[in-house]
Amino acid sequence: MQKIEMKDLVNLCQARGFVYQWSEIYGWLANSWDYGPYGSLLKENIKNLWIKEFVQKRDDMVLQDSAILMNSQVWVASGHVWGFSDPLIDDKNTKERFRADKLLEDLIESSSDKWEYLKTKYWVPNLIPESWDMQKQTEVMRWEQVLNPNTKKPWDWTDVKKFNLMYKTFQWVNEDTASTIYLRPETAQWIFVNFANVLRTSRRKLPFWVAQIGKAFRNEITPGNFIFRTREFEQMEIEYFCEPGTDLDIFEKWKENCKNFLVNVIWLDENNLRFRDHEKDELSHYSKATTDIEFMFPFGWGELQWIADRTDFDLKSHMTESKQDLTYFDPVNNKKFIPYVIEPSVWLTRLFLAVLTNAYTFDEQNERIYLKFEPRIAPIKVAVLPVVKKIWDLAKNIYKQLSEDFVCEYDEVWTIWKRYARMDEIWVPFCITIDSNNYENGDVTVRFRDDMSQQIVKISELNEFLKPYLK
Ligand code: GAP
To answer: Which of 72, 113, 272, 429 lies at 20 to 30 Å from 389 by C-alpha?
Structure first.
């Protein structure tokens, strides 16, 4: 089987209107991407399947949609103002900037016996450079003479320093510290901030959970790999509030729920997924247990989703900072406590990339590329293709009828074979062809994408005929 190259996927996405480079007519903005007509539909389908699975089909879940600009105190309480940073290092010669921890990870991966060597020589506590302090990272970068990965030339590194990833802006007319606010770097915090509101207005009992889909912004030092690491991205986060002591069982259950969603709802190939538990040294300051779900992207394994036991860290911090009571009263057992939280969150833009990678199929016999989407994920469900010009208007009526129920595309240009080929490339599950003869009988021909078989169907019954396949 042919290996997928990232550049081919990017080219296909740009050529077929899935993803465009941002501000293209102004010479582009590096590492920013826009979602084109098919990409926008595909993204909506993924979101809707997630909402259906985790909100609609459950009686213990509610959805919320919160603001992007938030009171700065939220980020003080969450720890982002002091702790949400990456280790930055500059090459003094070229003025290029890198994440020191990533360069050190590459150094570690380049040799199998680094553990004994680094432990003895530098007293490093583990092989996770992200967890080392800045001084230790500087020391190893310098003494190991790590090369600039772009120039491959000898190092001339600055000290490693912390770089806060939050985007700052100002409210009111003054650009001073008092009016500084931040674009949210994650959607999760608003769920904690709104905990008491949602609990009161939705009349829920524990355990219950809140889901949110939305944009997050991070001033990444080294974005890259197409839409995998960008400065603006979308998250689909869930915070599941539960009684302390029940958290680890719920955490385990969530691994299964997430796998089920990725394999049976989104149809990712199970062989391209793996679960990785965080080691103790690697856990975030608020987490008791974390598991990453990784996917085999064209560039290798990358994090797609995580499940974290965040304990009561967030609610406790917001209680301290806001001086508001965020405890929960359990009327059955007459108990008051601060709930624990399990966070099974997936990153929509990465899931989008995983779906595209999964769908990318090379037809060796015909040397063609297809994006083989599951019908429920496919951006376009039905294509309406009139065969002759004199029935264009009639075909448009059929398009109108079908678009009451499905996302359709109407195409009258070029030969029918070329139009089939265009639709096959993005795996439109059904093409409807209409010629003068069958239209006069009140019929159309339905072509099934998967086996290319054809069936005559009455126009009046067409929507009902297609519905079971596209449910
Ligand atoms: N609420 C938890 C949270 O946001 P995080 O580790 O800061 O945790 C979560 O980020 C995940 O979001 C990451 O593990 C990664 O999968 C994804 N992510 C982080 N930065 C990203 C970026 N710049 N572009 C796309 N996805 C990103």
So the answer is: 429
The preferred substitution site among 186, 190, 232, 352 for testing ligand 1, maximizing ligand atoms within 8 Å of CB, is 186
SS (H, E, C) 334-348: CEEECCEEEEEEEEH
Residue 136, pLDDT > 90, answer yes
Which of 35, 347, 351 best tests ligand 1's pocket when mutated (most atoms within 8 Å of CB)?
A: 347
Which helix (H) or strand (E) segment is 209 a member of?
Answer: strand 208-217
Q: Please give the structure tokens belonging to residue 263.
A: 């394999």
Closest CA to 382 of 418, 407, 416: 407
Is 70 exceeded by the pLDDT of residue 27? no
> What CA–CA distance (Å, rounded) separates 367 from 373?
19
User: How large a percentage of the chain has pLDDT more than 70?
Assistant: 97
> Which burial class, exposed, middle or buried, applies to 288 when counting CB atoms under 10 A from its CB (0-12, 13-18, 19+)?
middle
Closest CA to 362 of 15, 35, 17, 12: 12
φ/ψ of residue 389, rounded to 5:
-60, -35
Q: What ligand 1 atom has the least distance to the C-alpha of 228?
A: 25
The structure's pTM equals 0.90
Residue 368 has pLDDT above 70, yes or no: yes
Please enumerate in sequence order all residues whose Cβ is within 8 A of that of 98, keeping only pairs 6 or more positions apart, or say none. Answer: 88, 89, 90, 91, 148, 149, 221, 222
For the CA of 303, the nearest atom of ligand 1: 16
What are the tens digits of pLDDT across the range 267-319? 999 999 999 999 887 888 889 999 999 999 999 999 999 999 999 999 999 99
